[in-house]
Amino acid sequence: MNVLAMDIGKYQTVFCEYNSVNGEYKFGTVKTRPQEIRDLILSRDEVTRCYAIYLSRYAGCH
Description:
Layout: E1 2-8, E2 12-19, E3 25-31, H1 34-42, E4 48-55
């Protein structure tokens, strides 16, 4: 199973792609804009089954 975890900050989102079968992982960043986060999620392959999202208190969400 593939996992896409995101830590959404005010200006930048850090993400980690983790493959639980072979233990491989990759980190990256995108700007915290709706279109960029949407593109990140939709660009993953069909085997990504789990999404973990964390909104930092500094993300500007009230």
